[in-house]
Amino acid sequence: MDINWLSLIDAKQQMAPEQYTHLADNSSLTRRVRQACDGCFDVKLIDHKTVRAGRQECKLLNLPDATRALSRQVFLRCNEQPLIFARTIVGLVEKNRPLTDRIARLGEQSLGSVLFKDPLAIKRQMHLVCLPFNHEFFNTAKLAGLNSDRAVWLRRSLYDYEGCDLIVYEAFIAF
């Protein structure tokens, strides 16, 4: 599933300034959603499994092609309404074991609540793309009952967390 990701500079040319400011924000999305929900925020775990990382993911994570990876997919919700569809990918390699074990224990807690509490978590790259909701990236979200007939902005961030690389995707469904 190759996606033509845009750099922040290129994406800025394709959207309204307030939309760009919202999507390019480096702060905790979990915190922003939680504040907007006025206490009615939760995380709904959709899927947590081992997958083969895609070609672009392996390249970004400096892993051999088709490396096994942990995939975790959730909805960030307000009043049980999904606002964000998020997917995390971490290569299942020995150096990442502490991180994959920690993610496995998250359950219905947000990964952002962990990443943004730790000063050792560094966001190294961010890219944006606008995809139609019928794109295969959203297959799990559709299986979980989410439907949309519009295009959705998707953000991909590469993090270094205590020496482990991970990718976090955030699709802005309704936020």
Description:
The protein has helices spanning 8-12, 17-23, 29-37, 55-60, 97-104, 112-115, 139-143, and strands at residues 41-52, 68-78, 81-91, 121-132, 151-161, 164-172. It has one domain (8-172): Chorismate lyase-like (Chorismate lyase). It has 175 residues and is an alpha+beta fold. It has seven helices and six strands, in the order αααβαββααβαββ. Strand 5 (151-161) and strand 6 form a beta hairpin. The longest helix has 9 residues, at 29-37. It is globular and about 40 Å long. Helix content is 25%, strand content 38%. The chain has a six-stranded antiparallel β-sheet with strand order 1-2-3-6-5-4.
SSE order: HHHEHEEHHEHEE
Can you tell me the CATH topology? Chorismate lyase
What's the pLDDT, averaged over the residues? 91
Helix content: 25-40%
What is the CATH H-level superfamily? Chorismate lyase-like
What does the overall shape look like?
globular
Unreliable segments of 5+ consecutive residues:
none
So, CATH architecture?
A: 3-Layer(aba) Sandwich
What's the helix count? 7
Please state the structural category.
alpha+beta
- Biggest sheet, strands in spatial order? 1-2-3-6-5-4
CATH class: Alpha Beta
